[in-house]
Design brief:
By secondary structure, this protein is an alpha/beta fold. It has one domain: NAD(P)-binding Rossmann-like Domain (Rossmann fold, 3-Layer(aba) Sandwich), CATH 3.40.50.720. It is built from nine helices and seven strands; from the N terminus they run βαβαβαβαβααβαααβ. Strands 3-2-1-4-5-6-7 form a seven-stranded parallel β-sheet, sandwiched between helices. Helix 1 links the parallel strand 1 and strand 2. Helix 3 packs parallel to helix 4 and helix 4 runs parallel beside helix 6. 46% of the residues are buried. The mean pLDDT is 97. Bound molecules: nicotinamide-adenine-dinucleotide (NAD). Nicotinamide-adenine-dinucleotide (NAD) binds next to helix 1, helix 4 and helix 7. Nicotinamide-adenine-dinucleotide binds next to helix 1, helix 4 and helix 7.
Amino acid sequence: MKYFDRPNYSVIVVGAGRGIGRAAADLLASQGVAVGCLDSDGATAQAAAEEIKAGGGRASAGRLDVTEDRAIGPALDAMAKSLGRIDGLINCAGITGNTNIKAHDVDPADFDRVLGINLRGAFMLSKHVLPHMVAQKYGRLLHIASIAGKEGNAGMTAYSASKAGLIGLVKSMAKDYVDRGITINALAPAVIRTPMVDAMPQASQDYMTAKIPMGRCGELEEAAQMIAWIVSPACSFTTGFTFDLSGGRATY
Ligand SMILES: NC(=O)c1ccc[n+]([C@@H]2O[C@H](COP(=O)([O-])OP(=O)(O)OC[C@H]3O[C@@H](n4cnc5c(N)ncnc54)[C@H](O)[C@@H]3O)[C@@H](O)[C@H]2O)c1
């Protein structure tokens, strides 16, 4: 079965420079999807798009930091122009902030930074991409949350709060657009080995990995496959949901 059976299907990936976003961009491109690669690190977004094009795929690139309010609308408009339309947006921009730290030691500035990217950034992206989707009566919006948002990870106060907020954001927004041909979902991975995880203290990595019943981390390919399906036309009867990708840690 072909998931992307529509001509010129176009998906923007925010945080496409590396990690889960990069893997999703590569897989989508291999399925014939035109991919808009955005990242606060513009050089990595450019590199992702160049690699896709070198492999025969279609891609555009740009720099976007999701905390820069005034840049978001223009960046998405430019992508819409370049790709022709925006069928889907996958938001993979996220940071952990300081981890392995108890709540009373959390620096409020770090808390704000994590919430600013993981939650407010997700809201701002949604605010600016939804008008494109409403106009064309179709859209697939996916935010990458985390198992930390469902269960709460020790030592990760800001991160867990930001991802729980993101899950709530998705549930609410989905209801607002449920009759517009637009689905809005989240994905909650456990541990997928990426530069973000590698940068965390070993104690945090061990804590999270030990909680996975399958006894292993998830693979980038496993994340990309689920993401691709969620933003495809085939995933048409699920909205407001947080998909699980946790090797059995969450069964709800
Ligand atoms: N890797 C995991 O185990 C895991 C688990 C659960 C959830 N997640 C979530 O998945 C998403 C992707 O994580 P990853 O592991 O691929 O991380 P990563 O650090 O490898 O990649 C994140 C990308 O987002 C970009 N980014 C960061 N801040 C940004 C900003 N302000 N604006 C735009 N782009 C920005 C980075 O430059 C980077 O390219 C994050 O939201 C993360 O919280 C990851």
